[in-house]
Write a structure and sequence with these properties.
By secondary structure, this protein is α/β, with parallel strands linked by helices. The protein has one domain: Alpha-Beta Barrel (TIM Barrel), CATH 3.20.20.70. It is built from ten helices and eight strands. The protein has an eight-stranded parallel barrel. Helix 1 links the parallel strand 1 and strand 2. It is globular and about 45 Å long.
């Protein structure tokens, strides 16, 4: 099954609105010509609206970095699915930093995934080394919408450390653990349709090693997504 490669840039808590505009202006002239790869930018919440305006007509997608599962209410500091879907097609959910620093669990990630899909969003669901992170996190989803998921496999020890997994070791996890797990829950056609990205210290220097693996469909890029030339080089590697 042909799965279109995806490269998503998770800017994390970086870039003011002015800096975000500058970075997008540097990236878009070269990125918009790469049709073989779906490119998604995920800036911080304050920058979503201005970045959305800059991306109109470019073919580059927009994603948020998180959201809450309730539609509205007295949840100070949270952002509802409908607020995200006004601007975004994608939303990152279950990132290890959310789990480590903000107490998110497999159960709360699952609530977010279901709420995101109900709002018409496509979740980019982050999972690490633990089997429970996808078996618990991906349970009870609408089978008809499972194929819209994007799964990002991120070994926790590789995130932000500069120590990436090897392409072969990442491929083994995706091929032997992640896709079979999805197949057990939702059937093999869904497992083969879901795009699985690698995340964890992806750079222009090592991206091709991951993209050459048959079960890895792209990357969720952290620090390298904050540098226009580096991120564009990663996207170009995915296009090859």
């Amino acid at each position: 099954m042909m799965r279109k490669p995806m490269v998503a840039g998770n800017w994390k808590m970086n870039k003011t609105i002015a800096e975000a505009r500058t970075l997008v202006a540097e990236m878009t002239p070269r990125l918009r010509s790469i049709q073989e790869v779906e490119v998604v930018l995920c800036p911080p919440f304050p920058a979503l609206f201005p970045v959305a305006a800059l991306l109109q007509g470019t073919g580059i997608g927009l994603g948020a970095q998180n959201m809450y599962w309730e539609a509205k209410g007295a949840f100070t500091g949270e952002v509802a699915p409908g607020m995200v879907s006004e601007f975004c097609r994608y939303v990152i959910l279950g990132h290890s930093e959310r789990r480590t620093y903000f107490g998110e669990t497999d159960e709360t990630v699952n609530k977010r995934i279901q709420a995101a899909q109900a709002a018409g969003l496509a979740p980019i669901v982050c999972i690490g080394e633990r089997l429970s992170e996808y078996e618990s996190g991906l349970k009870d989803l609408d089978p008809a919408r499972v194929q819209d998921l994007v799964v990002a496999y991120e070994p926790v020890w590789a995130i932000g450390t500069g120590k990436a997994a090897t392409g072969i070791s990442a491929e083994a996890v995706v091929h032997e653990v992640i896709r079979p797990g999805i197949a057990r829950m939702y059937g093999d056609p869904s497992a083969q349709a879901v795009r699985v990205l690698y995340g964890g210290s992806v750079t222009a220097a090592n991206a091709a090693e991951f993209f050459s693996q048959p079960d890895i469909d792209g990357a969720l890029v952290g620090g390298a997504s904050l540098k226009a030339d580096e991120f564009i080089a990663i996207v170009q590697a995915a296009a090859k």
